[in-house]
């Protein structure tokens, strides 16, 4: 989990996450023959990348970036205003998409009922 706190690549953190996998490795006692039966299995941790967002790393980066911008004072205000305007524009786009999808669903329902009525009238 600690390795996910600081992602090595922010873009990759949006798609991949670090996970620890374990592999059983056959180990023999030094100087002994493996066929004599004096072997043990050892659980060895192996780090791998898995599919999935590294939310923890992204949130920690965003918080640290925000704190750093606040520490800049007036110089950081310009970037904070930019991100605030970017957020507002994104929210407007999301509201348009939601409105459009609601209209599309109404249109699909209307067409379904129109076809049923048309079938009744024509039969």
What is the count of β-strands? Answer: 2
Q: Which stretches of 5+ consecutive residues score pLDDT under 50?
A: none
Structural class: alpha+beta
Q: Give the integer mean of the pLDDT values.
A: 82
Listing every helix as H and every strand as E from the N terminus to the C terminus, the arrangement reads HHEEHH
Largest sheet, if any? 2 strands, antiparallel
Anisotropy-based shape = flat
How much helicity do the residues have? 55-70%
User: Can you count the helices?
Assistant: 4
- From the N-terminal CA to the C-terminal CA, the straight-line distance is 66 Å
Radius of gyration: 29 Å
- The total number of structural domains is 2
Order of strands in the sheet with most strands: 1-2
Beta-strand share of residues: 15-25%
Q: What do you see in this structure?
A:
One of its GO terms (biological process) is L-glutamate transmembrane transport. One of its GO terms (molecular function) is L-serine transmembrane transporter activity. The chain has 123 residues and is α+β, with helices and mostly antiparallel strands. The chain folds into two domains: 1-72, no CATH class; 74-123. Helix content is 61%, strand content 21%. It has helices at residues 2-5, 10-13, 55-72, 74-122, and strands at residues 16-28, 39-51. It has a two-stranded antiparallel ribbon with strand order 1-2. α3 (55-72) crosses α4. It is flat, with a radius of gyration of 29 Å. The termini are far apart.
């Amino acid at each position: 989990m600690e390795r996910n706190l600081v992602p090595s690549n922010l873009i990759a953190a949006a798609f991949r996450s670090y996970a620890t996998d374990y592999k059983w490795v056959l180990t023999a006692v030094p100087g002994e023959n493996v066929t004599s039966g004096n072997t043990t299995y050892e659980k060895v941790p192996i780090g791998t990348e898995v599919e999935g967002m590294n939310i923890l790393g992204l949130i920690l980066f965003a918080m640290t970036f925000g704190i750093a911008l606040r520490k800049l004072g007036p110089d950081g205000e310009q970037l904070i205003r930019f991100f605030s305007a970017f957020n507002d524009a994104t929210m407007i786009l999301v509201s348009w998409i939601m409105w459009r999808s609601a209209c599309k669903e109404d249109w699909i329902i209307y067409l379904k009922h129109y076809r049923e009525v048309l079938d009744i009238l024509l039969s």
